[in-house]
Amino acid sequence: MEPLADGKMAVQVGLFREGAAVKPRRRKVVKELDQGTADAFVRRLCNLLDTADFFGRHASLSPQEKIAKLFLASAEDKNKSDFNCAVSPKVRQQVPILFQAIAGVMEEKSGAMVQSAAEINVEGFGRGLLYTGRVILVLKSLRAGAPFPFTSEEKTIRYGVECIEEGLDFLEKYKEMTACHGLFSLEG
């Protein structure tokens, strides 16, 4: 080894031996979900799943069973997506339904018409967009399908509620900034 490299290694080993303080990893603080928003999201998601159930085969299922059977991806679907960087058909189905459900809850809570546009290609790249008028409330980029496919109801609800809260916070902030002109009259 070169003398400079030996010197660097000696310094690093010396620090390690002296018990130099190593920064502990920060744990992500898990915020408590608003139960009202979570319930509204589950209800809206089930309503969207019911619209695709043309013959009512799953009408007797509870909301949790309906989400598990009609929306969540199986471990096999997840492995298909992870294996060759191509997303499974289940993931391509999840993306627009999830963002439509989020938009519906945001409409209920804000009183403004919120629209969603979600797309994902076969390689897993795409976007989820929630907007009202000219204002983009939520924009999520999908890279290799992440965070999809959702395989657990808890993760699905957490993601949905976080998007709802993010969009409503932005809408409230934007309403304050444009109080004189209104949301729809701004050039931009």
Describe this structure in words.
This protein is mainly alpha-helical and 188 residues long. The chain has one domain: Protein of unknown function DUF269 (Putative cytoplasmic protein), CATH 1.10.3100. It is 52% helix and 11% strand. It has helices at 3-17, 35-52, 63-70, 75-84, 89-110, 153-177, and strands at residues 115-120, 126-132, 135-142. It has a 3-stranded antiparallel beta sheet with strand order 1-2-3. α2 (35-52) crosses α3, α2 packs across α5 (89-110) and α2 (35-52) crosses α6. The longest helix has 25 residues, at 153-177. The protein is globular and about 50 Å long. The N and C termini lie far apart (60 Å). It comes from Paenibacillus riograndensis. Pfam families: DUF269 (PF03270). InterPro entries: NifX-assoc_nitrogen_fix. This is Nitrogen fixation protein.
Characterize this entry briefly.
The chain is mainly α and 188 residues long.
| CATH architecture assignment | Orthogonal Bundle
β-strand amount: 5-15%
Strand segment count: 3
Helical percentage? 40-55%
Q: Quickly give the structural class.
A: mainly alpha
Radius of gyration: 23 Å
Identify the strand order in the major beta sheet.
Answer: 1-2-3
Uncertain runs: none
Give the termini separation. 60 Å
> Could you say how many structural domains there are in total?
1
How many strands, what sense, and barrel or not for the largest sheet?
A: 3 strands, antiparallel
So what's the overall shape? Answer: globular
The ordered string of helix (H) and strand (E) elements is HHHHHEEEH
Give the full name of the CATH homologous superfamily. Protein of unknown function DUF269
Discrete helix count: 6
CATH topology group: Putative cytoplasmic protein
CATH top level assignment:
Mainly Alpha
Average per-residue pLDDT, rounded, comes to 79
